[in-house]
Amino acid sequence: MQVFGVGSVASLGRMNIGRFQPATATAPAKDPKEALRSLLRDLRGLRRRLSTLENVLGKGLSGSKSAVVGGADLGLETSTSAARLESTDEMNGLVTTFTTANPQFSALSTSTPTIGGAYNGSTSDTLTFLVTSGATVGNSQALEFDVYDGQNQLIEHVTIAASTPAGTPITLSNGLTLALSAGSIKTDDSFQLGVHPPTALSVNVTNPFNGAGQAAPNFEPGLNVSAGQFLVNGQVVLVQSHGSIQDVIDSINAAGAGVTATLEANERIRLTQDTPGAAGQINLSGDTSGFLAATKLANAALEPGTDDETSVAMTGVSALSAINAGTFTINGVAIAIDPAMDSL
Q: Helices H, strands E: what count in the chain?
């Protein structure tokens, strides 16, 4: 039921506007002048009724003189939107100053270097770490490296003291740190490392979750994805260890959960309810794969959808909460309102 013609004038059809009948519509008048006078009287009556209708439409229930042409004029939401849920941050929001955290020795050394810190140089370069005195990491013999820049100029000599435990970071003069895993380091072995001014990291959405080095998806440190599953609105989404971020997005879209997953330009995953409206839900649960945490969806808050407030019961619209059940009259015609059932 429409209360006072927001949708159309037709809803006020009971205002008794249109009983105008020209004299010629019933029986022809014998006197043309009298017929004309009768027609003019009918036209004046119609004009008065149209004026009354205009006043009602202009005042509405509040008595305001502004014209009521739609719910938007009452401060109501007149469009619908779908609920959505989005990663709380970029999947990899870190900034780096080097190309890889785990460069590899070129020859027979079994220890793995780990790079940390932040390069403080102003230009990009490729550094070469050359072992000048090898040993087993952590034993009684010191380890020594010469560090060369891209022009093969010696820029630093690094000594790691004897008995330094494996994994202990050593700070270099350029702001980087070097740690060595357990294993042996061979004299004359070397590894290279690209360095550059601060650059934002990003994930690779097609690299497999079990990929290593440059083939890894490049999640933030400590976040990994393995084989498992999670639920979207109660529907199972499988995660394979050899799968990728894009594979899981495709699986969500094929799960029949009433949700569409997209990868946004800001490196976040967005889930959008397929059915617009305030009732739409997106529930994520039961993750055994680590995918929701790695993609920053685990703690994402639902952004509810919205309804067209002119089409829902008035009790559900805050702007109309002061309207009580009852009646009002227009031109003597009583119109009943039940806010729990009636929409605007």
A: 3, 18
Pairing of strands 235-239, 184-185: unpaired
Are the C-beta atoms of 146 and 172 separated by less than 8 Å? no
Beta-strand ranges (E) seen in 135-219 are 135-136, 143-148, 154-160, 170-171, 176-180, 184-185, 190-200
For 246-266, the pLDDT digits (tens) are 999 999 999 999 999 999 999
Q: Please, are residues 252 and 271 in contact by the beta-carbon 8 Å criterion?
A: yes
Are 231 and 272 in a shared domain? yes
Distance (Å, whole) CA 43 – CA 41: 5
Question: Is 4 within the bounds of a domain?
Answer: no
Assess whether 270 and 228 both reside in one domain.
Answer: yes
pLDDT single digits (tens) 302-329 = 999 887 666 666 676 666 666 777 777 7
Examine the pLDDT at 39 and tell me if it is beyond 90: no
Model-level pTM? 0.58
Q: What is the pLDDT of residues 166-198, one digit of tens each?
A: 999 999 999 999 999 999 999 999 999 999 999
Structure-token pair, residue 217? 């998806």
Residue 265 lies in a domain: yes
What percent of the chain shows pLDDT beyond 70? 71
Would you say residue 272 lies in a domain? yes
Report residue 343: phi and psi, to 5°.
Answer: -100, 170
Q: How many CA atoms lie within 13 A of 183 on its CB side?
A: 13
First to last CA, the chain: 7
Q: Is residue 199 part of a domain?
A: no
- Residues with Cβ < 8 Å from 159, sequence gap 6 or more? 142, 143, 144
Number of folded domains that form the chain = 3
72 and 125, same domain (yes or no): no
For residue 154, the enclosing domain spans: 107-188
Sign (positive or negative) of CA dihedral 36, 41, 42, 47: positive
Closest CA to 270 of 35, 90, 128, 147: 90
Lowest mean pLDDT among 72-76, 104-108, 197-201, 218-222: 72-76
